[in-house]
Every structure is written in structure tokens, then in C-alpha cells.
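Page 47, continued from p. 46.
Same chain as before, 232 aa.
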Amino acid sequence: MTTPSQARPVVAFIPPSCCGAGYFRRLRRELGDRVDVRALELPGHGRRYQEAPLTDAAAAVADLAARVDTPLDALYGESLGAYLALGLADVLDRTRPPLLLAASNSPPSVRDRIDPGALDSVESAVAALRAMGGEIPPEVVSDPALAESAYPLIRADLLLAQSCIDLVRDSAAAGDLTVLAGADDTALTRMEGWAAHTRGRCEVTSLPGGHLLSATNPAGVAERVLEALARR
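Result:
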């Protein structure tokens, strides 16, 4: 058990597209009391579902930064969250830069552009998201009511993804970078390119799991997070 005199490392977690902070429930259970988890979420997601979703990366990063109220030991971002974490690392106090953990995404510098004009239906938006490795339950597309309610957020997150790619394509984090890739995530490519996005050490690790890595292998992700923190 952690005693009051033993400060736990503070880690901010940024979820994938269309997910809120609740996405990290399983991972939080695996981490237990060894980490002070700060799960962040953007407007339109999770408990902030009534707010209009953001499509501009700079605005999204500013929104997340406003919710970081203490120095961070590490930033963990998964899928779209990996790019947001890289952008957030750029604006945080760099006197002691946080360790960056990027999961389930290819380097932004190797990503193709997303065509906003091609996102004119829920089917096309879901297809674009799946091409990037994202997952949407099939029943969302097949149920007209669910599709109508889900489409605006899916489209907004895809537009945000493109804005993030533009924002962080040339970014390099000040702290060390640990990259996690699910062995079953077939959308990932050229993962060695993540080394260009840090001025510190870069380590790319494959572990069992799919694109939603914290959902499919929370124990494995927790182990890698704790290992990275131990090396800090």
C-alpha cells in the first residue's frame, strides 16, 4: 500500500475517439493505488456529452491543459489520444517534462490526410474511422436511431484527428517516449517513425491486444506504464 509519505506518480490518460474517461475503468483497476490516475475527456464525450465536440486540435489541447491542475509524471494517450497527448506535452511546463506514452496509433508524420468531404454519412465516417484502426459497434451503423445520434461525434472526432495530425506532425516531446502497439492492431504502420517525435529516448513495444489496447489488455498496459515510470 502507498503511504502518505510516498507520493504516487501522477499520470493523465487521454482516451481514443468517441470515448470518455470511463474507457479506462479496467486499466485503473489494474493500476490500483500505485498511480494517481487523471483521466481526461473532451467536450462531447463521457460526462461532457452535452457540450459541443471540438474539431480544432489547438482548442482541444487547450481544453485538456486547463484540466491539468498538478505537475504530471507521465501522459498516456491511446489512438486519437496519442496525438492529443503529444500536443499537450508541447504546452505543459517543460522544467520537468512528463514521460509520454503513445498507444495504438501510427506516427502523425506518416499519416495520410482525411478528406472531410468524404465524411458525408455515418457509413463513410465509420469506414474512415475503421481504416485508421478505430472501432464502432456494428449495431450503431445498423440501427437508424443510433446511427443518427452517433454520426456527429464520429465525424467531429475524425475532423479533430486530421487537425491533430496537422498540429503535431513536426512535434517532438521533450521527455522520453514509450510507444505501445497491440499485436492484433493491423492499422498500425511505420512505428519506428515515432522516434522523430521525441528529443529523448524512444522505445516501441508490442504486446498482445487489439486497437483498443487498454480494453483488450489492461493488465499488459498497466505493466508497461509502471515499467516506464520506474525508469523515469
